[in-house]
Write a structure and sequence with these properties.
This protein has a domain at 49-88. 56% of the residues lie in helices and 0% in strands. It is built from two helices and no strands. It has helices at 31-43, 50-85.
């Protein structure tokens, strides 16, 4: 590491100050311009139709129910096996 210039002869790290990066100063946009740009971006969004939203909602609810049933079934199986293992 000494050859790479990271430590000195005593093994102490060589500290170097980083140079300040010159960043261009940009004017901050005001609140009204921010709101205007947000509205412009939201107009570009491809919003789902009412039927698509209903379909997506049904898929999510069915998926949640199926996963809940699987977890409940596994919980019951493991609890029964532990009870049988310890003869309770």
């Amino acid at each position: 590491m000494q050859r790479q210039g990271e430590v000195d002869a005593d093994g102490e790290p060589i500290r170097q100050r980083r140079q300040q990066q010159n960043r261009p100063t940009e004017e901050r946009a005001g609140f009204t311009q921010f709101v205007r740009e947000v509205r412009a971006e939201l107009r570009k969004v491809a919003w789902p139709s009412r039927s698509e939203t209903g379909n997506y909602t049904a898929v999510v609810i069915i998926t949640i129910l199926v996963i809940t049933a699987i977890v409940a079934g596994l919980d019951w199986v493991f609890s029964q096996s532990v009870l049988e293992l310890f003869d309770v």
